[in-house]
Design goal:
The complex is a heterodimer of chains A (225) and B (415). With 225 residues, chain A is α/β, with parallel strands linked by helices. Chain A is built from eight helices and 14 strands. In chain A, a hairpin with a 4-residue loop joins strand 9 and strand 10. The longest helix of chain A has 17 residues. The radius of gyration of chain A is 18 Å and the shape is globular. In chain A, 45% of the residues are buried. By secondary structure, chain B is of the alpha+beta class. In chain B, strands 1-2-5-4-3 form a five-stranded antiparallel β-sheet. Chain B has a five-stranded mixed β-sheet with strand order 7-9-10-12-11. Chain B is rod-shaped and about 160 Å long. Classes of the chains: A alpha/beta (225), B alpha+beta (415). Chains A and B meet through helix 1, helix 7 and helix 8 of A and helix 3, helix 4, helix 6 and helix 7 of B.
Chain lengths: 225, 415
């Protein structure tokens, strides 16, 4: 997938770029409004990761520009502004999703993947990963055509891992993904372990490979190996 | 004591004392004048006796009339000393004793000295004094009554602007928006007071506003460096193999960054609520959110073996969904975190209120807990959870209540 990262903080921009580059993604970056506008005017992207507060302008105008010109590039807004104020404006203008800073790169990637998936599959909602077939509408998982029952959290976690395939996903990121940020995360590390144990067990019992590995006590990694 | 009670008390006290003193002075003055009048009558009587004696060389007949009495008594050698005195008068008609005034004098008839005692009853004088006294008392009472009523009416209306200013001061809250309104008055002092209060309120509000804006901006600006740290950490863990020691360090850093984020988000949220920046009200189904919260917490409830009882009725609210989620999540997290193994947790929701009751160790001071960054012993939170709950309740005009009965702690939100 082809991604444009519009972010004025170089530190954050570089991290996002290095996290997304590789495997199957191509990343371009823009550090200010003018560069970003020039890029979205000429090239098409699967997803634009867009910071709202930019030098020379606001990210909302880029969303407007895209919609006015009939480009349906996916747009994910990232902003330090809380979901409580700018979210609706952004979403009303046609952005696909909104992520509040600070965020985990794995969460960003999972959101971007979801946007791209929605846009490119166009109707087909089956996500295929080797022997695992996931019906995103029905929220069912099949391994070798046999349905495997997952709880809501396990299902969500499985999708999260697949979106972050090949990356170490920290426990903090997993906890935040599963329980949101209004719940104290430190309490939940034990539960992560048991959820992951269950996913692995269910997949392996259904005849799939064991794709999830623990990563040095810090997190987990979903690998296609 | 109210000002006009105090004022009335002093005023009426002084009035009574002055009136009493006046009354006494009045009494003695009138008494003195009237006694003088009687004395003149007595002297007149005495002169009549003298002129009678001079003319007829004998004592006049003793007669008695008009509360007046003349008595002659023979004396031996010396003459009686002429003097006036207070005495009593026996009224034969009415058979009682009356206060009287007497003049003792002497007269010589044919070489024989006689003592003359002319006595005149003071009963009429006394009556007069009594009437005057009653009128005076009547005037005093009437005056007092008028004073009290006037004070009530006039003072009340004069002090009206003062009470209005006072009421506004009592109602004054930094968080609420309408500021102190002007209270017109024709009295300079009150106009000045009013102006001073308005200025003070405006100054306090603007100072507080600046402080809140600063808090919000500071929290906001902090988000960018925190997100950079976070993303750099996420990038770092992708790089290579780590030793146990390194991964432990990294875990600690992750934990701390997460905590910093939560702290900052809570502060930002508090500032936003206080600044009245949270609008975006939609129809919120409290029951659905509550069920979602319970689902989010199911692992913790399960792990502690908590016996969960729920009675969830329908409740719709016009509010910001995120805020209601935060409120319910905080309440539920607290009820679980402070619970013990195999404890109880009951959640009741109906159209009027939400009550979350849990068993829990120890007790705490509710008012203290509502303060920012206050943590009860053994609490692992950041100390803003209940402050946020209170703030959210205040924002929507809900009542946030806490009751403890033995081991049961019960938090209620009354919509």
């Amino acid at each position: 997938m082809k991604i444009l990262i519009v972010e004025d903080e170089a530190g954050l921009r570089d991290s996002i770029e290095s996290y997304f580059t590789g495997s199957d993604s191509i990343c371009e970056t823009a550090g200010d409004f003018t560069t970003a506008l020039a890029k979205v005017s000429v090239y098409r992207y699967d997803c634009v990761i867009l910071d709202l507060t930019l030098p020379q302008g606001t990210g909302l105008d880029i969303v407007k520009h895209l919609k006015e010109n009939g480009h349906n590039d996916g747009v994910l807004i990232i902003s330090a502004k809380n979901s409580l104020d700018d979210r609706l404006t952004g979403l009303d203008l046609g952005a696909d999703d909104y992520l509040t800073k600070p965020f985990h790169l794995s969460e960003l990637r999972s959101r971007v993947t979801a946007i791209v998936r929605r846009r490119t599959f166009n109707g087909s909602s089956i996500l295929k990963f080797n022997e695992i077939n996931i019906d995103l509408d029905a929220k069912t998982v099949k391994v070798n055509d046999a349905i495997v029952k997952f709880t809501r959290k396990e299902y969500s976690l499985l999708l999260y891992f697949i979106a972050n395939k090949g990356k170490v996903v920290s426990k903090s990121a997993i906890a935040e993904h599963l329980w949101g940020d209004s719940i104290d995360i430190a309490d939940n590390f034990d539960f992560i372990y048991s959820h992951i144990k269950n996913i692995r067990k269910k997949l392996v019992e259904a005849g799939a490979n064991d794709y999830i590995q623990a990563a040095y006590g810090m997190g987990y990694k979903f690998t296609d190996a | 004591m109210k000002l006009f009670d105090k004022y009335n008390r002093v005023n009426i006290g002084v009035t009574i004392i002055i009136m009493l003193v006046t009354g006494i002075v009045y009494y003695y003055t009138i008494s003195h004048i009237l006694t003088g009048q009687i004395d003149k009558d007595l002297v007149l009587e005495e002169n009549e006796v003298f002129s009678y004696v001079n003319k007829n060389h004998r004592l006049p007949d003793v007669y008695e009339s008009n509360h007046q009495q003349i008595v002659f008594a023979p004396l031996k050698q010396q003459k009686a000393q002429r003097r006036f005195l207070d005495t009593v008068y026996r009224d034969d008609d009415e058979k009682d004793m009356e206060a009287a005034r007497a003049l003792i004098s002497s007269v010589t008839v044919s070489g024989q000295n006689y003592r003359i005692i002319v006595t005149q009853s003071k009963v009429e004088t006394e009556d007069l004094i009594q009437i005057i006294f009653l009128i005076t008392i009547g005037v005093i009472v009437a005056l007092l009554a008028i004073l009290i009523i006037l004070n009530r009416v006039i003072l009340k209306s004069i002090w009206k602007p003062f009470y209005k200013v006072l009421f506004q001061l009592k109602e004054f809250s930094l968080a609420s928006h309408p500021t102190v309104s002007s209270t017109p008055s024709t009295i300079d002092e009150f106009t000045e007071l009013n102006q001073a209060v308005i200025n003070m309120a405006d100054r306090v509000k603007s100072d507080y506003q600046n402080l809140k804006v600063f808090t919000e901006n500071a929290s906001h600006e902090l988000m960018t460096p925190i997100s950079i740290i976070n993303s750099k950490l996420d990038t770092l863990v992708q790089t290579d193999e780590f030793t146990d020691k390194q991964s432990k360090l990294l875990n600690d850093i992750y934990g701390t960054v997460t905590r910093l984020t939560r702290l900052n988000k809570s502060m930002l949220l508090l500032a936003k609520i206080e600044n009245g920046l949270i609008k975006d009200n939609t129809d919120v189904n409290v029951k659905l959110i509550l069920e979602e919260c319970i689902y989010q917490h199911e692992e913790m409830i399960h792990q502690l073996g908590i016996n969960l009882k729920t009675t969830l009725g329908e409740k719709q609210l016009l509010a910001n969904k995120s805020l209601i989620e935060i409120l319910l999540n905080n309440l539920l997290s607290n009820a679980i975190r402070h619970n013990y193994q195999n404890g109880e947790l009951s959640i009741e929701l109906d159209a009027e209120k939400l009550t979350i009751t849990n068993t829990g160790k120890g007790s705490f001071d509710f008012d203290k807990v509502l303060k920012r960054f206050y943590k009860s012993d053994g609490s692992e939170g950041i100390g803003l959870g209940l402050t946020l709950c209170k703030q959210i309740c205040d924002n929507y005009g809900f009542t946030f209540r806490y009751i403890q009965e033995g081991k049961l702690h019960s938090f209620s939100v009354i919509f």
